[in-house]
């Protein structure tokens, strides 16, 4: 698998919305009890409009999207969303490992948050992220370079 990214454009919005709905539906239902398409469309639009996203490509096929912010004190993985048909194939692992390597070269920790019921929490823990806090809805995690 060759994993690359490219900047997202307006033409990627429909694909990203599909990824959002597919990836988050089970998490939202498990954590909040119901899925509302209109509400999720609003959440997606607010996120998509307010950040710089990249499209994740596996062997040149779009399979998800991400927003990673390189800040003065850390690298923040704001979003990492893989389409359900691409989940479980190591894409999230490869992507995060690349982010961790880049952050490690700069001596910066990587921080992210995930909803309590998101199965990706196991991936983050397996990669060495440790819990640094909780909100009512999210687990806050950090990986530090050794």
Structure characterization notes:
Strands 1-2-3-4-5-7-6 form a seven-stranded mixed beta sheet. It contains four helices and seven strands. The radius of gyration is 15 Å and the shape is globular. It is α+β, with helices and mostly antiparallel strands. The longest helix is centred in the N-terminal third of the chain and has 20 residues, at about 15-30. It starts with a strand and ends with a strand.
Backbone CA Rg: 15 Å
Helix content: 25-40%
Number of extended strands:
7
Give me the oligomer status.
single chain
Structural class: alpha+beta
Order of helices and strands: EHHEEEHEHEE
Mean pLDDT over the full residue set: 96
Q: Uncertain regions: pLDDT < 50 for 5+ in a row?
A: none
Ordered list of secondary-structure elements with their pairings:
Blueprint: E1 3-7, H1 13-32, H2 37-50, E2 54-58, E3 61-70, E4 75-82, H3 91-106, E5 110-115, H4 120-126, E6 130-134, E7 138-143
Parallel strand pairs: 4-5
Antiparallel strand pairs: 1-2, 2-3, 3-4, 5-7, 6-7
Q: What's a concise summary of this model?
A:
The protein is 39% helix and 31% strand.
Which structural traits does this protein have?
146 residues, alpha+beta, 7-stranded mixed beta sheet
């Amino acid at each position: 698998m060759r994993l690359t990214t490219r900047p997202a454009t307006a033409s990627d919005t429909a694909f990203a919305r599909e990824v959002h709905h597919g990836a988050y539906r089970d998490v939202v239902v498990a954590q909040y009890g119901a899925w509302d398409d209109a509400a999720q469309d609003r959440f997606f639009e607010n996120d998509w409009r307010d950040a710089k996203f990249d499209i994740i490509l596996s062997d040149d096929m779009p399979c998800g999207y991400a927003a990673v912010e390189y800040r003065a004190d850390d690298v923040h993985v704001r979003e990492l969303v893989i389409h359900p048909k691409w989940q479980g194939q190591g894409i999230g692992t490869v992507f995060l490992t690349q982010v961790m390597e880049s952050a490690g070269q700069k001596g910066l920790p990587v921080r992210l948050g995930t909803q309590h019921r998101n199965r990706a929490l196991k991936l983050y823990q397996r990669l060495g992220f440790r819990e640094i806090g909780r909100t009512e809805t999210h687990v806050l995690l950090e990986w530090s370079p050794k």
